[in-house]
Design goal:
Layout: E1 3-7, E2 10-13, E3 18-25, E4 30-39, E5 46-51, E6 57-59, E7 67-72, E8 77-82, E9 91-100, E10 108-112, E11 116-121
Parallel strand pairs: 2-11
Antiparallel strand pairs: 1-3, 3-8, 4-5, 4-9, 5-6, 7-8, 9-10, 9-11
Length: 122
């Protein structure tokens, strides 16, 4: 069974840094776009950053200049380096990826990770 496995969340003081990681487990054929989303208590899930298979990145305005998304193609892993963290960055962060599961099919499946809690104290 294919899953996205996240790691790197935790508690950090304002101004600090954290790095999140996410990679698929199980048998996959390809990885297309990957990204990170977050959901704060009482709010809707929102986009944080995405990266295409070609390396094109996109960021929410609220994190531009502070967060960096990157990927290791050999490991099928996506990272989110978060610097200058603010209390308003507190949320559950979810990894998202479009995965191809078989060489004979071009269909991509949308997967989500289980979420990892990031808490920024003031």
């Amino acid at each position: 069974q294919v899953q996205l496995v996240e790691s790197g969340g935790g508690l950090v003081q304002a101004g600090g840094s954290l790095r999140l990681s996410c990679a698929p487990s199980g048998s996959i054929f390809s990885v297309n776009a990957m990204g990170w989303y977050r959901q704060a208590p009482g709010k809707q899930r929102e986009l944080v950053a995405t990266i295409t298979s070609g390396g094109t990145t996109n960021y929410a305005d609220s994190v531009k200049g502070r967060f960096t998304i990157s990927r290791d193609y050999a490991k099928n892993t996506v990272y989110l380096q978060k610097n200058s963290l603010k209390p308003e960055d507190t949320a559950v962060y979810y990894c998202n990826a479009d995965l191809g599961l078989a060489s004979w099919s071009a269909h991509l499946y949308d997967y989500w990770g289980q979420g990892t809690q990031v808490t920024v104290s003031s």
